[in-house]
Design goal:
Number of helices: 3
Oligomer: single chain
CATH topology: Aminopeptidase
Helix content: 10-25%
CATH class: Alpha Beta
Strand content: 25-35%
Distance between the termini: 39 Å
Radius of gyration: 15 Å
CATH superfamily: Gcn5-related N-acetyltransferase (GNAT)
Shape: globular
Length: about 180
């Protein structure tokens, strides 16, 4: 089974939305609006096409991942750029085969190559640490909403990528946060 990961195209949108819907349909933690979030983010200033990837087997899209821009408003008033990982989706029939991890690793590599310094996410506290994510509080990062400390995570794509960024995460308005 050959997995191909590539940049999402406009022609993929409906298939990707079906993947996202199926991936979160029976998820333990879900907002119920992941498809709407993907749709809104694609139309936003935060959207970076190179950071929206699909995983396919043959001609079937089985997974999707998206990074979008966000800001960290530092305690000193400085604004630092970062990225948000949300959502990562894999069709239920293909989950637990490492495809989500391959999407995460690929999008990390692409973002790092593009000069990005860090990524923030809200996610499962036992899944994301295997890719290098740590509690965001380690860097003094805070959310504007209630989230368990262990589920609010960040990663430095380069050493020191979050140096001096201590402050509040400001998500794009499309997140509705």
């Amino acid at each position: 089974m050959q997995l191909n990961i590539r940049e999402e195209t406009q022609a993929d949108h409906r298939k990707v939305e079906a993947v996202v819907r199926a991936a979160f349909e029976n998820a333990e933690h879900t907002s119920g609006d992941e498809v709407g979030l993907v749709h809104r983010l694609r139309k936003s200033k935060a959207f970076v096409p190179a950071f929206s990837l699909v995983a396919e087997i043959g001609k079937e899209i089985v997974g999707h991942i998206m990074l979008t821009r966000l800001e960290i408003v530092g305690d000193d008033g400085a604004v630092h750029e970062s990225l948000s990982l949300a959502p990562v989706s894999v069709l239920p029939a293909y989950q637990r085969r490492g495809f989500g991890g391959k999407l995460i690793e690929r999008v990390h590599a692409i973002a790092k190559q593009a000069g990005e310094r860090s990524i923030v996410l809200v996610g499962h506290p036992t899944y994301y640490p295997r890719f290098g994510y740590q509690r965001a509080s380690r860097w003094g990062l805070r959310a504007t909403f209630t989230v368990p400390d262990e589920a609010f995570m960040a990663i430095e794509l380069v050493p020191g990528g979050l140096n001096g960024a201590r402050g509040v995460i400001r998500y794009p308005p499309e997140f509705g946060i």
